[in-house]
Amino acid sequence: MCGIVGYIGPRVATPLLVDGLRRLEYRGYDSAGIAILNGHGVETRKAAGKISRLESLLSSSPIEGNIGIAHTRWATHGAPTECNAHPHVTEDGSIAVVHNGIIENASTLRTRLTERGHVFSSETDTEVLAHLIEELYEDTLEKAVIAALSHVEGTYGIAVMAASDPGKLVAARLGSPLLLGLGEDEYFIASDVSAILAHTRQVIYLDDGDVAVLTRDGYDIFDLDAATKSHVVSRVDWDLDQIEKGGYAHFMLKEIFEQPSTIGNTMRGRLLEEEGTAKLGGLNISDEELLDIDNIIITACGTSWHSALIGEHMLEELTRIPVEVEYASEFRYRNPIVTDRTLCIVISQSGETADTLAAMREAKRRGARTLGLVNVVGSTIARESDGGIYLHAGPEIGVASTKAFTSQVVALALLTLKMARLRDLSILRGREIVAGLQALPGQVQQMLDRADELEELAEEFKRSPNFLYLGRGFNFPAALEGALKLKEISYIHAEGYPAAEMKHGPIALIDAMMPVVFIAPHDSVFDKLVSNVQEVRARKGKTIVLTSRDEPALEGLVDYEFRMPETLEMLTPVLAAVPLQLLAYYIAVKRGSNVDQPRNLAKSVTVE
Q1: Strand pairing report for 88-89 and 95-100
Q2: Is residue 80 reached through a cis peptide bond, with omega within 30 degrees of 0 on the bond before it?
Q3: DSSP H helical segments within 85-154, as ranges?
Q4: Is the pLDDT of residue 608 over 60?
């Protein structure tokens, strides 16, 4: 993986493709390349490192043509070098391929092709595809691609072009997202709609097993048996300015400051104030069927897993239904207890996370009803789940998730409210939760207005080698998320723990050099958490406390304090997330880190 762009049409392809790659930078990558059909054959330019290096290369050695493919690579097979960068071409340079995914039997295929006389120049699994297509080429490019894919085990989103079939691009997808963009007498291929949004809003999302053939005259879509398929054309409603920085220094900072709006967008039209409940029209599951659910599994990865843990607290406390939270990468490889009365909630910002998608498919295979909480309309999880809740947070460009996390927690609160009101939750309690949700955007804005306090705090701790984040109850997952944000973008080692568990090991780390962040609102476990603050203070640890009111019990124990607005206990993680995001952001900036594209990370993890 990570980013694919293709173009066929009347315009010069190179600037369109490079612009598309620029808009895919947020996904994370370590090399980039482009291939153009120049009227005589396939010509490529590739560079390790940032797209700016590819642009410099193209400036000194330009290539022109009206058909091309381009790629940003996040290394899986082979180091991030120019040689391993995509596109990959055959030895004679006649066929070029870009690929997201992993070819699991690449080693076997490489051996067979080498025996047939093919010579390889890279360490990648993708190069095997180019040679395999060449080996099986007899008639048309699409027939050769279909034949080659019949030998492939693994996942792929590919775009292919050949000098022998020069008026054509071929794309195919299995387990890695790919879409077609439909313009005026021109067509695009992309792994992410942001790459082509400047040129068209009309897109077709390819399904697994699809093969698309694009020419200047139109497109056709087939399955792997070469049978014609029809697809619905979707319209993308995002505005181009949503994927621009809008005057902010980084996308991450912009997205942190968008949260009053994005939280409101997640709730818009979904709260029924008088009834004290939520209206979720996309669930595709009746109230009677919801009442028949006897257990819930929530599966996710990374930040989404943290929101799942908060959802588990909400659902169990208010609905009294047993809830299990599973890492998607583990769920898919064990033998989970799933029945036709299980509700499986899958959470993914992109809707394309490979492990989460596979976990959802496994749950469906075992008879569970599935609900997807995703941010990207038209994503694979959105299309394959039985129903779901769109976050409506808008495109999230920063690799470290911020606004999607808070919208996920709010979406889980909406689902909890609906399910709890169907059971025994009183209308008065329901109205209280509705009021708490409605207050969140304004409360988040109050904290954003004091961002300078977090920037000053970041200056104090920018050189700290380690951090510890502690919370209890609903705020233990918030501690995990705070620690993850810090290590993702600043590369400082950080751990999140339930506060009481500190005594069972991590307390050994605490000394005068160890900052400890406590999430300590005035809630049902506040007094217990004060004891944990005292334990850290007694060992000379630096205490940073997020709290919600003036607390005499904390007097003399707090080195640094940030005051949050008061809210319902179940909603505290939404508020706590904001100062933790800002603290991580400012520390990373002061350390000189690339906060939008942190090293080794990709925005959408579409491989195992």
Answers
A1: antiparallel
A2: no
A3: 106-115, 126-135, 141-149
A4: no
DSSP letters for 182-229: E-SS-EEEESSGGGTTTT-SEEEEPPTT-EEEEETTEEEEE-TT--EE
Determine the pLDDT at residue 519: 93
Q: Decide if 331 contacts 392 (C-beta within 8 A).
A: no
pTM for the whole structure:
0.83
For residue 403, give the DSSP letter: H
How does pLDDT run across 100-135, given as a tens digit for each residue? 988 999 999 999 999 999 999 998 999 999 999 999
Query: N- to C-terminal Cα distance for the chain?
Result: 11
SS3 (DSSP) at 499:
helix
**Sign (positive or negative) of CA dihedral 249, 496, 297, 608:** positive
Spatial CA neighbour of 206 closest among 447, 427, 425, 6: 6
3-state class of 326 per DSSP? strand
- The CA R_g of the chain, rounded to the nearest whole Å, is 25
- Residue 202's pLDDT is 94
CB atoms under 10 Å from CB of 275, counted, come to 13
DSSP H helices in 295-349: 302-319, 328-331
- Which residues on neighbouring strands pair with residue 298, listed in sequence order? 325, 345
Classify 161 as helix, strand or coil. Answer: strand
> Is the CB of residue 534 less than 8 Å from the CB of residue 557?
yes
Alpha-carbon distance of 95 to 158, in angstroms, equals 13
Contact 593, 24 (CB under 8 A): no
Catalytic residues: 2, 603
Helices 572-590 & 451-461 angle (0-180, nearest 10): 50
Question: How many residues are there in the chain?
Answer: 608
pLDDT attached to residue 604: 61
In terms of Cα–Cα distance, which of 35, 41, 15, 134 is closest to 88?
35
Please provide residue 95's backbone torsions phi and psi, each rounded to the nearest 5 degrees: -130, 135
